Amino acid sequence: MYQSAVLSIYVDLALGLVVAFLLLSLLVSGLNEAFVRVLSIRSKFLWAYLRDTLDGADKESGAWLPARVLDVFRVLPFVRDPRPAHRDEPAPARLGEMPEARTGDSMMNLLYERVREIDHAKRGRTSIADIPPERFAVAVMELAAMENGDIGEFLKKLRKIDSPLYGHLQGVWDSAQGDLDRFRKGVESWFDGEMQRLSMLYRRYVKWVVAVLGLVVTLLFSMDGFEYAKTLLRDNAYRASVTAVAEAGPDAYRELRQQCTGGDPVPCVTELLSEPALVKMMGQALVSVSIPAEGEPGVHANLAAWWERVSTPSHWPGFLLTYVALLFGAPFWWDVFRRITGIKSRR
């Protein structure tokens, strides 16, 4: 019986911590997704890569897609927008002409003409954030149709305008040995590999964003993981004592009245049991919401108390625990929660 009670306490503690970390991780993921969507980061990643691949790096400011993550933070979100201007018309039935000389982003615009059927406007720019390899290969074949389907002449034009795409397609064309179908499939495989490489850079970028947002959320809620665990255990002990009082009879009830100021322990017990540990911890955030028994909910700024918690070194190990926990991400904590509770995953 004793072992069962102890096990129940530890299960409650584990569930409480997991739920707290899951909720905060979901908040971090939501903030990250909002950040990515508002700034169109996915679309900018794609078109920065396409600018570098089709037209080459800008002579004055270098590559459109920096290799270092910190440079990506500095350039893509706010400084440079590599996306082409949005057009409502579908791809024109008549193909344009290859530029005779390299002129800015002309090759990228030609590609955009071939794929813009799936586009919709986002502040005047394209919102396309993914081009399937099959569609890119078809677009390349359509661009080659400008030279009457002669891949060799198309490659010569790319070389003439000094497009970086020339080197990639020339290697694919040599491997295809003049077979157009093999060339198209080779372009698909090459572009699919490039998208995987681009996804790796994007994931590195997102990890840094999540790391920054995790720190902000931890400090904003001043979430001390160790203090929260202690509060969970204290709540569990209090509930156990209330249960014991209910079973012990009038003598224990008189003892509970002495512990609760105001005489009547019922409001005291009701108030404490209706405010679980997670609500107590969230109430120590920079801005908290209170829901009184009567009246409208209120929003309160806790600047003084919040700053005292954040600036107290004894809370820093708990903040570090919470921050590290958030870096694992919401999927990890959901899986832990599912394993503890026995909820089966539906796939």
Give a description of the structure.
- By secondary structure, the protein is mainly α.
- It has 15 helices and 4 strands.
- The chain folds into 2 domains: 2-29 and 224-341, no CATH class; 40-218, no CATH class.
- It has helices spanning 2-39, 41-54, 69-75, 106-115, 133-144, 151-160, 165-176, 180-220, 225-248, 250-259, 265-273, 277-282, 303-310, 316-327, 330-341, and strands spanning 121-122, 125-126, 287-290, 298-301.
- The strands form 2 sheets. The protein has a two-stranded antiparallel sheet with strand order 1-2.
- β1 and β2 form a beta hairpin.
Concise summary:
Helix content is 65%, strand content 3%. With 347 residues, the chain is mainly alpha-helical.
Notable features of this structure?
4 strands; elongated; mainly alpha; 347 residues; 65% helix; two-stranded antiparallel ribbon; two-stranded antiparallel sheet; 2 domains
